[in-house]
From TrEMBL:
Residues 24-275 form the EAL domain. This is EAL domain-containing protein. It comes from Sphingomonas chungangi.
Length: 289
């Protein structure tokens, strides 16, 4: 027990552990009201065709600006939202908001939305997607759902059912953070993914001498090609990385080298100004015109 005598009294419960648990509880409470208080925002990061250099879509990324602590990373608050049962509410908001924003952009840009495994196992997901599409008027093919390998942890008949219902709706499916989970290849036999997103841990260090990352990326690309799936390399920060990734024939690229995630209005402005060429169905505008 933590009870003792003298200075060491609190040693078992003091320090980071207690602090972390308390912080987490407080954050959880704050997160409960964050959406209603307008502290949650949705930003968008461009995804670029590696061959044509055209922006083909964007990924929606949630941002939480805490009134006291400032910006809190989704890597921190998404797991809290999942544990506190807030992910359904936040996730539905993201899908709705992303569809509303996407119809306002010029061209036929796709919008990719991260969907947590807990949302994927929610039988209401198809309804949520359908109503977001109907309310916004966004064509289903312009919405892409990014799923992680986590959706296969609870593999059940319902998992297969959810895949086919979503495909019937006509949305695209991407397998996010590929290579970081337990990466059983078995599910690629049947899961109807349109795209594999190669995790940024493979891009980081890819240019280092003796790195095996390039070989792994090449293997993922070969696999995706054979299965008729696109690939996106995440987290490209340098021209060296970009050149190498292009040589490896990854079809799409995403990273700070192009842009970090920016507001919906900025996406529209860049497209309108011709800063970004639009692909595939929009006219490819030249900067010089
Ligand atoms: P993710 O889906 O793999 O998203 C890509 C992450 O990589 C984003 O981090 C993005 O900002 C970051 N990134 C992009 N380019 C670069 C780069 O060049 N260098 C580096 N170092 N990082 C780059 P972010 O926005 O912090 O999101 C982290 C994770 O949180 C996401 O990973 C996703 O798993 C989750 N997340 C974010 N928004 C949502 C959401 O709306 N719903 C759900 N369920 N999860 C979300
Ligand atoms: Mg993602
Ligand atoms: Mg990812
Ligand atoms: Mg990630």
């Amino acid at each position: 027990a933590a009870k003792g005598s003298g200075r060491g009294r609190f040693r078992f419960f003091s320090g980071d552990l207690l602090q972390a648990a308390t912080d987490r509880r407080r954050l959880e409470d704050d997160l409960r009201d964050a959406l209603a208080k307008g502290e949650i925002d949705l930003l968008y990061q461009p995804i670029v065709n590696a061959r044509t250099n055209c922006v083909t879509g964007v990924e929606a990324l949630m941002r939480w600006t805490h009134p006291v602590h400032g910006p809190i990373s989704p890597a921190l608050f998404i797991p809290i939202a999942e544990e506190a049962d807030l992910i359904q509410q936040l996730g539905a908001w993201v899908i709705r908001r992303a569809c509303e924003d996407a119809v306002r952009w010029p061209g036929a840009l796709r919008v990719a939305v991260n969907v947590s495994p807990m949302q994927f196992t929610n039988e209401d997901l198809p309804k949520i997607v359908l109503s977001a599409l109907a309310a916004s008027g966004l064509p289903p093919a312009r919405l892409e759902l990014e799923l992680t390998e986590g959706v296969f942890l609870s593999e059940s008949p319902e998992t297969d059912g959810m895949f086919s219902v979503l495909k019937d709706i006509g949305v695209r499916l991407a397998l996010d953070d590929f290579g970081t989970g337990y990466s059983s290849l078995g599910y690629l036999k049947t899961a109807p993914f349109d795209k594999i997103k190669i995790d940024q841990s493979f891009v980081r260090g890819v240019t280092a001498p003796g790195s095996r990352n390039g070989a792994i990326i090449a293997a993922i690309v070969a696999l995706a090609d054979a299965l008729g799936m696109e690939t996106t390399a995440e987290g490209i920060e340098s021209f060296d990385q970009l050149a190498l990734i292009r040589d490896l024939r990854v079809s799409h690229v995403q990273g700070y080298i192009y842009s970090k995630a920016i507001a919906s209005g900025e996406i529209a402005a860049r497209l309108e100004s011709g800063d970004w060429a639009i692909a595939p169905s929009g006219p490819a505008r030249q900067r010089s015109e």
